[in-house]
From TrEMBL:
PANTHER family, sorted: BARREL METAL-DEPENDENT HYDROLASE, PUTATIVE (AFU_ORTHOLOGUE AFUA_1G16240)-RELATED
Catalytic reaction annotation: 2-oxo-2H-pyran-4,6-dicarboxylate + H2O = (1E)-4-oxobut-1-ene-1,2,4-tricarboxylate + H(+)
Presence of the UniProt keyword Membrane in the record: no
Species per Swiss-Prot/TrEMBL record: Tepidimonas thermarum
GO MF annotation: an example: 2-pyrone-4,6-dicarboxylate lactonase activity
InterPro entries in the cross-refs: Amidohydro-rel, Aro_Compnd_Degr_Hydrolases, GLI/LigI, Metal_Hydrolase
EC numbers on record: 3.1.1.57
UniProt record similarity statement: Belongs to the metallo-dependent hydrolases superfamily. PDC hydrolase family.
Entry annotated with the keyword Hydrolase: yes
Pfam families in the cross-refs: Amidohydro_2 (PF04909)
Domain Amidohydrolase-related: 34-309
Alphabetically ordered keywords of this record: Aromatic hydrocarbons catabolism, Hydrolase
This protein's name: 2-pyrone-4,6-dicarboxylate lactonase
GO BP term, example: 3,4-dihydroxybenzoate catabolic process
Length: 317
């Protein structure tokens, strides 16, 4: 069944809708687990997609996100603004406000955003902004504009989420290390997993976190990075043949090296995947391969996201 995009919008040709009927994870998530990277899209008839977008997704509603949350066993969501909505955060805000305090947001704002608008975003549950450097998703934004935004959101206690391609890290290094907030990197900085774990490319990313204790990373999206597979699909993977096996060493190294600065998310509804759509339940069962102990899983899924997004509620040590 092809999922609709309402409001007169037409899905990008070849668009893959999210996996229908995900399995129940084998992994019993720790109480209070947080899906720390996911999205809501539209519905287009209520929350139009941005004119400058590079893709048009299927609608993916807050109700469907919250149903997935409950199905997988998560307690909370961090909803991240995607480029298809540009700097129009209304769908994100609507979802956060409807969540009963169980969702926080990471918004996209422009330099023209007013202080009153920032405060309204905060009151709706936003706790960060996202800077996207992936060229297939966005046009160039001057770094002085981004730095200005970072300096304006720092007093709110917000952080900056950054999304970039690994080959662009050298050019972005000075900007990232100048940011005055906590910085959270999406999807491990998208490493090329065909290259060696101890090679200079991934070594530069590890050095970034080692030298800058304010920089965190999400160890999510193996389905975007894997070359070898197998896909997280029923019958294609299993306990003896984990999905996305070539990504495991990279993600596990980050979890074991920086256990207090890692986050995980489903990335539902998985925009812009081209060759398959993962079963989200099997994605959750990927977690023990990269966080092999209950303590590491609790840090990854509960302690770290609670410290960052619900510090007023975190009861950790
Ligand atoms: O959803 C993700 O994290 C990854 C995306 C989409 C995205 O980041 C966006 O549109 O903002 C991608 O690689 O196309």
């Amino acid at each position: 069944m092809s999922r609709p995009t309402t409001g007169g919008f037409v899905k990008t040709p070849g668009w893959l809708d999210w996996y229908d009927g995900p399995s129940r994870p084998q992994l019993a998530l720790p109480a209070g687990a947080v899906d720390a990277h996911c999205h809501v899209f539209g519905p287009g008839e209520r929350f139009p997609y941005a004119p400058q977008r590079k893709y048009t997704p299927c609608d993916a509603s807050k109700e469907q996100l919250f149903a997935l949350r409950d199905h997988l066993g998560f307690a909370r969501n961090v909803i991240v603004q995607a480029t298809c909505h540009g700097a129009d955060n209304r769908a994100l805000i609507d979802a956060c406000q409807a969540s009963g305090g169980r969702a926080r947001g990471v918004a996209t704002v422009q330099r023209s955003v007013t202080d009153a608008e920032l405060l309204a975003l905060h009151d709706s549950g936003v706790r960060g902004v996202r800077f996207n450097f992936v060229k297939r998703l966005v046009d160039f934004t001057p770094k002085d504009e981004l730095l200005d935004i970072a300096q304006r959101i720092a007093p709110l206690g917000w952080h900056v989420v950054v999304y970039f391609e690994a080959q662009d890290l050298p050019e972005l290094w000075d900007f990232f290390t100048a940011l005055p907030t906590t910085v959270v990197v999406d999807h491990m900085g998208r490493p090329d997993v065909r290259k060696p774990l101890d090679g200079p490319e991934f070594g530069l990313f590890v050095r970034l976190l080692r030298e800058h204790p304010n920089i965190w990373t999400k160890v999510s999206c193996p389905e975007r990075l894997s070359v070898s597979g197998p896909p997280a699909l029923p019958g294609r993977c299993g306990p003896e043949q984990p999905p996305y096996a070539d990504v495991i060493p990279f993600a596990r190294h980050l979890v074991q090296t920086f256990p207090d600065r890692v986050l995980w998310g489903t990335d539902w509804p998985h925009p812009n995947l081209k060759d398959h759509m993962p079963d989200d339940g099997l994605l959750v069962d990927f977690i023990p391969h990269i966080a092999p102990t209950p303590e590491l899983q609790r840090k990854l899924l509960v302690d770290n996201p609670m410290r960052l997004y619900w510090p007023e509620e975190w009861k950790g040590d």
